[in-house]
């Protein structure tokens, strides 16, 4: 496992250098996917191609689930699976040139083994898993405090908040405040480091894979909004939090469903 950890760290650092070079060149192409706010750039594709090539060289048998280039569906999770988001927070990448991440999750026989989230512009790598614990760069991370909903900041997607979906506005009201970074990786880093108590958003598997592995290693709760295991099949409502905040938020979700039925 140590060999694989070192390999993946090297790939991520090389991918990040590639991203920084592309920012400096300032000639990336930007296309839309499913609407004017759903962007993909030539850099997302270059980074994904680079990571796919490294994975194929390292383990030709491994399967890959990744956001771009028609690799976004996988039904067979047997063996080793790499789940990749080449750039998480593409809108931030394009508009802010910061606040985006590169993420890789490694699964073996359907079980989360290793997660990596790299905040590229801050040179901040979170990595780890159940067997080895979680690290920030080379520093071992301790399990964050079990913050209750009222004692911390909740990460939330803006549309859920606006529509008060699943009592999202009440979750926000009961917390210390809401944060919306536009980057799932940053929200998940916040939770892993104990700077957030929960995160709820509509996410795809490559948005939540790496973070879920590290959160579970730290004893945090991770599921879909109804408390069921995540499906790794398209976008779904993701919910994660400290045990206390998660429990309170799940109760608010259930309450909203009773009120609406
Ligand atoms: P992405 O940049 O890799 O697409 C923004 O709220 C966060 O949610 C980002 O991490 C973004 O990841 C993710 N996300 C997933 N699907 C999205 C969508 N259809 N529109 C906007 N953000 C999406
Ligand atoms: Ca992406």
From TrEMBL:
Family annotation (SUPFAM superfamilies): Carbohydrate phosphatase
CDD domains linked: IMPase_like
Membrane-traversing stretches: none
GO molecular-function terms, A-Z: inositol monophosphate 1-phosphatase activity; metal ion binding
Biological processes per GO annotation: inositol metabolic process; signal transduction
Key words, A-Z: Hydrolase, Magnesium, Metal-binding
Needed co-factor(s): Mg(2+)
Residues that, per the record, bind Mg(2+): 67, 85, 87-88, 207
Entries under InterPro entries matching the protein: Inositol_monophosphatase-like
PANTHER family assigned to the protein according to its UniProt record, in alphabetical order: INOSITOL MONOPHOSPHATASE (PTHR20854), INOSITOL-1-MONOPHOSPHATASE-RELATED (PTHR20854:SF4)
Protein name stated in the entry: Inositol monophosphatase
């Amino acid at each position: 496992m140590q060999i694989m950890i070192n390999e993946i760290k090297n790939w991520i650092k090389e991918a990040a250098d590639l991203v920084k070079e592309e920012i400096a060149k300032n000639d990336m192409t930007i296309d839309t996917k499913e609407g004017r706010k759903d962007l993909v750039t030539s850099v997302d594709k270059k980074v994904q191609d680079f990571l796919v090539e490294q994975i194929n060289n390292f383990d030709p048998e491994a399967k890959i689930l990744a956001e771009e280039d028609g690799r976004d569906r996988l039904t067979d999770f047997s063996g080793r699976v790499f789940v990749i988001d080449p750039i998480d927070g593409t809108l931030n990448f394009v508009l802010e040139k910061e606040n985006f991440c590169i993420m890789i999750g490694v699964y073996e026989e359907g079980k989360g083994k290793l997660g990596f989230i790299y905040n590229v512009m801050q040179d901040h790598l979170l990595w780890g898993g159940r067997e080895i614990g979680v690290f920030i760069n080379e520093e071992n991370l301790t399990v964050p405090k079990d913050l209750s909903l009222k004692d911390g900041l909740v990460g939330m997607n803006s549309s859920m908040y606006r529509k008060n979906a699943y009592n999202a506005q009440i979750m926000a009201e009961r917390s210390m405040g809401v944060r919306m970074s536009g980057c799932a990786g940053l929200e998940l880093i916040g939770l892993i480091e104990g700077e957030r108590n929960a995160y709820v958003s509509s996410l795809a598997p490559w948005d939540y894979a790496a973070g879920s592995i590290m959160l579970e290693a730290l004893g945090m709760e991770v599921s879909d909004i109804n408390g069921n295991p995540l499906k790794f099949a398209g976008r779904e409502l993701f919910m994660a939090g400290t045990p206390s905040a998660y429990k309170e938020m799940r109760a608010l979700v259930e309450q909203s469903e009773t009120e609406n039925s």
